[in-house]
């Protein structure tokens, strides 16, 4: 039996969303921490699920919401004792569909006009929490999932902070966060942080094989190795020409001297409408390579270069996030990255 869910801005066509995925992959330790806190009666009112994108934070949040509200859970002994849920159970189905009265999924809403979604979680979305808590009974757990908190604008973040300061009775906030720097420190201080490390290559390959049956085994292994521990990235590698894109990223990043003709060619190709997924793969690949170069420099004792690369990563991450939020020109974003990287390397060798 399948579960039908309301589409989200970051869904991958043909791939189960976190709301639809009924099992966890590689998240046994995080699940144990959550369920141990629940059994011990020390469940914090707000949990910050923090880690890279695509490693199972939202999937774990949906699973824990089912656990709290009463979805039927089974343990898969072959999967390290990680939980799975029965799709036919009413609670599981209602949570996935967004129709359960004790569960609210806050994310970027549809655009006011036309197709697509808004670029931020607005204060109006956070204000829905007030109605949610007023209209539901406190006799049972009431679960609010903010997914991801990175998408909140300043007003939305401040509105969430006010609710967290005086949380309603029997309420649980599950807050997904990809980048710690994008979240107000005051929100972080009011939540218990649960850190999610990248998945192993084996877990990523298992997730790919389960959702894409019939795919070539060698391609699955290659995508897992290129994923950086992100199942989401691996899915894009498999269905969006990601293996070829990874080669382009390596060529861009590894060039001894910047090949500006190639940079402009790639930027032009990625600026075409409909290349959003490819653009995301290039972005993730470049930042992964940048992170690895900084770590290599640090290990080699080149503190000057490591520090410069780390600062460049931070500033570029903010710039790319702003470009995404305001739909700025992709070509200029990529060209500026290449220029800045060349400048950092030239000044800090």
Map the helices and strands.
Layout: H1 28-39, E1 46-50, H2 57-69, E2 73-76, E3 82-85, H3 90-97, E4 103-106, H4 123-135, E5 142-146, H5 154-165, E6 171-177, H6 185-189, E7 192-195, H7 201-211, H8 217-226, H9 231-239, H10 242-254, H11 260-270, H12 276-299, H13 303-325, H14 330-348
Can you give a write-up of this model?
With 349 residues, the protein is of the alpha/beta class. It folds into three domains: 28-195, Rossmann fold (3-Layer(aba) Sandwich), CATH 3.40.50; 200-239; 241-348. Helix content is 52%, strand content 9%. It contains 14 helices and seven strands. It has helices at residues 28-39, 57-69, 90-97, 123-135, 154-165, 185-189, 201-211, 217-226, 231-239, 242-254, 260-270, 276-299, 303-325, 330-348; strands spanning 46-50, 73-76, 82-85, 103-106, 142-146, 171-177, 192-195. The strands form two sheets. It has a five-stranded parallel β-sheet, sandwiched between helices. The N and C termini lie far apart (58 Å).
Query: Taking Cα atoms only, what radius of gyration do you get, to the nearest Å?
Result: 21 Å
Number of helices: 14
Strand content: 5-15%
Shape: globular
Give me the count of strands.
7
- Could you name the CATH homologous superfamily of the largest domain? P-loop containing nucleotide triphosphate hydrolases
How far is the N terminus from the C terminus?
Answer: 58 Å
Work out the helicity level. 40-55%
CATH class of the largest domain: Alpha Beta
Structural class: alpha/beta
Q: Give the low-confidence spans.
A: none
CATH topology of the largest domain: Rossmann fold
Oligomer: single chain
Strand order of the largest sheet: 4-5-6-1-7
Task: State the order of secondary-structure elements, H for helix, E for strand.
Answer: HEHEEHEHEHEHEHHHHHHHH
Mean pLDDT: 90
Sheet of most strands: 5 strands, parallel
Number of domains: 3
**What CATH architecture of the largest domain would you give?**
3-Layer(aba) Sandwich
